Amino acid sequence: MTDLRRRWESVSLRWRVALAFGVVTTAVAALLSVTTWQLASSYMLDQRERGATNQAVVDARLVADNLQRRSDELPTLLVGLAGRPETSVLLRRGGTWTTAGRETDVEDVPPALLSAAPARQRVEVDGVLVLAVAIPVTPDGDMFVRLASLTELDRTLRFLSGVLVIGTVVAGLLGTLLGWWTARRALQPLSELTDAAGRMAEGDLSARLPVRREADLAPLASRFNATADALEERVQRDARFAGDVSHELRTPLTTMINAVEVLRRRHGDLPETAGRAVDLLGADVQRFHRMVEDLLEISRGIQVPDGHDLAPVDLAVVVENVPEALVPGADVEVAHPAPLVMADRRRLDQVVANLCDNARHHGGGVVRLGVVRRDGQAVIEVDDAGPGVPADLRERVFERFTRGGRSGRNGAYSGGTGLGLALVAQHVHGLGGRVWVEDRPGGGARFVVALEEVSS
Amino acid sequence: MGTRVLLVEDDERIRQALGLALADEGYDVVETATGEEALEVVDPDLDVVLLDLMLPGIDGIEVCSTLRSRGDLPIIIATARSDTADVIAGLEAGADDYVTKPLIAGELAARIKALLRRRRPAGAEEAPGSPELRLGDLVISPGRESVERAGQPLHLTHTEFRLLVELATARGDVVTREQLLQRVWGYDYFGDTRLLDVHVRRLRRKIEPDPDDPTLVLTVRGSGYRTGP
């Protein structure tokens, strides 16, 4: 029972409503059909029986007259009385039977009917339902029997029952359909809510419910939208804060960079210790600069969804224009013809540059840059021959400030901002694509950017 | 005399630091803090203007279009962010190039050098007698830096002219965005293609009979531009 109940509850609400509608309409239609059937069939049978009985009474009177007059026209009369071929008449006269009309065996006439005469009874003769009416024609036991076929009535009733059954089924189906449609309309706001909440969970903070006028639904929509507004504003405020901070940092940064640049140009004039101090300062000012830029870029990405900067970009052009200094000695492999993608060129360039930069610092340098097609998508592959990325880090490397094992501890690479791959992920997602890292055949890591290909 | 740069920047610390570093790179720097001041001190000896778009008083865009209406003095605009409408507005107002903050003297020097470089067509000596180019009904004289249509001179800025010559010399072959950015602006990486797109738009407005249905400078989807037909 509980199992059934659980199964019922697992059926979607829409289908449950539809099924309930179907069951109710079927029940109502069935009830109506049964009543109609009862009334119609009994009325028709009654009519038919009464007609047949009256006929038999009239016939019996004719036969009785005939017997009294002792006319020899009796056989002709009987044939005439039988009339239609599916009717038979039987006459018992002095113990012998005479039949006319349809061939009938006297044995088929139930003896109970004869003993109860005048009487009528429905019997089956040779597989055909007939109404037998027996009427005594003389006081000394002569008997007239009329067998009238009920086939036609039977056929009519069968047709009627067919119509009623079909009607019931159709009503049930229509009811289910109506229920489904009604439920769909009624549940529309719910599926919109599910939709909007889902989009929001995926990070689309602009998802909202349409405002409805129905009193029952308006509060739901406005409450949901207000919550979404608040959430969106909060996320944007956080992003704006990061952006504002970075923005404000740029003024002192400009002073620092340019002052350090002046000092560096005069490196030769400086005492050795001062020169080393300038070098240290210069390197960190550079890194500070990159970090501020990356932070700005990241907060910018959250704030403004792309769209207006999109244009078809040839991936071959992208990888072929990566500066040699960033990928010294790397193989560049491009599928022919090279795939086009819809992208913002500046961001795409940054994606590739950051991946190359990452390979240079964590994987010993890019060994291959590839543009291929995989599963119907345009794919950029950046391969290095380094130690690869362990499976448990493959998601985390794309988070902000996740440091690769090699860089953080021994300081072999301290120029990174910790934001490079996070920016890659943000840009690629912004372009509707995916980025991941896998093992390179032959050792090392392979960073893969997959984007929707567009036709040229 | 070194290259004279007019630096228009309202933040005093940035102005000082940048002025110092640019002077250290060998530039002769004239510093001003407002647009009004900038328009007053502009003189024919200036080689290039470095203009912050965010200025008190008359804003950078307006200064830019005023300067452009007076002549084709090269203008580099400085914007806070590269992806704002500011960049487009500044370029539409006639700027030749843009840089984003923080401004770094070394990078600026490279931009200025690229902007002021005289164009040297591959293989051709730059001389007043260098061969004329034809594009549709335009006659382009790289030596005199002039473009004429039916004897009437069309006025292009130095940068627009260089862009046109690069396209015309290819004689209908595709010139990629990268090539154009590299040859005209000296970008060898991260060329923001809007710089190019706005310049092409400006160029079309000046040379195309119908800028909305270009017949001389055609876009090649996904790669670059070519001349037609």
Topology overview:
The complex is a heterodimer of chains A (456) and B (229).
Chain A: H1 2-10, H2 13-69, H3 74-82, E1 88-93, E2 96-101, H4 111-116, E3 119-125, E4 128-136, E5 143-149, H5 151-201, H6 218-265, H7 272-303, E6 311-314, H8 315-320, E7 331-334, E8 340-343, H9 345-362, E9 366-374, E10 377-384, H10 405-410, H11 420-430, E11 434-439, E12 445-454
Parallel strand pairs in A: 7-9
Antiparallel strand pairs in A: 1-2, 1-5, 3-4, 4-5, 6-8, 8-12, 9-10, 10-12, 11-12
Helix pairs in contact in A: 2-3, 2-5, 6-7, 7-11, 9-11
Chain B: E1 4-8, H1 12-24, E2 28-32, H2 35-41, E3 48-52, H3 60-70, E4 75-79, H4 85-92, E5 97-100, H5 105-116, E6 133-135, E7 138-141, E8 146-149, E9 152-154, H6 158-169, E10 175-176, H7 177-185, H8 193-207, E11 217-220, E12 224-227
Parallel strand pairs in B: 1-2, 1-3, 3-4, 4-5
Antiparallel strand pairs in B: 6-7, 7-8, 8-9, 10-12, 11-12
